[in-house]
Amino acid sequence: MKLHTTPTQQYQTITGYETDSVEINAIVYQHSLIVLPEIKPVSWPVNRFAELTEASFEQVLAHQPDVVILGTGAKQQFVHPRLIQALTAKRIGVESMDSQAACRTYNILMAEGRKVALALIMEQA
Questions:
Q1: What are the helix (H) ranges across the chain?
Q2: With 0-12 CB in 10 A as exposed, 13-18 as middle and 19+ as buried, what is 4?
Q3: Which residues contact residue 80 at a Cβ distance below 8 angstroms, ignoring those fewer than 6 apart?
Q4: Rounded Cα gap, residues 115 and 125, in angstroms
Q5: Strands of 27-29's sheet, edge to edge?
Q6: Dihedral angle at the C-alpha atoms of 16, 21, 23, 24, nearest 10 degrees?
Q7: How much is the pTM?
Q8: Which interval of the chain is the signal sequence (predicted)?
Q9: Do the Cβ atoms of 56 and 46 come closer than 8 Å?
Q10: C-alpha closest to that of 102 among 123, 72, 81
Q11: Which residues contact 62 (CB under 8 A, 6 or more apart)?
């Protein structure tokens, strides 16, 4: 799926999404990532939703976003509150959705100037 470009190209914008990859500013990635508007995507060592731990979210917390969009793969899955306790303690919202919806939502929030982080799980076999 190709997404439409916007005048936000100085930021990390999702420009395409497939089930096994994501395109950010025309660069294709095939592994899990943390994406923030003003820094290059950061590799995220999560290969499957079931592998999420508190430490997974500590890596996201280090970037101090206002909200985290969690892309859980082909279907929406909800993370156990205990895993995101460090984020909620700092009043950082976490929204879980399928990865395509997460990419669209990230682009919208980023274009609005929100300090958003996309934690995107790209399932690995």
A1: 54-61, 85-89, 99-111
A2: exposed
A3: none
A4: 32
A5: 14-18, 21-24, 27-29
A6: 130
A7: 0.89
A8: none
A9: yes
A10: 72
A11: none
In the numeric block, which tokens belong to residue 14? 């999702």
Confidence at residue 5, expressed as pLDDT on a 0 to 100 scale: 53
Quickly tell me which residue has 């995101």 as its tokens. Answer: 84
> Along the 125 residues of the chain, how does pLDDT read in single tens digits?
555 555 445 799 999 999 889 999 999 999 999 999 999 999 999 999 999 999 999 999 999 999 999 999 999 999 999 999 999 999 999 999 999 999 999 999 999 999 999 999 998 76
Half-sphere exposure of 92 (CA within 13 A, CB side): 24
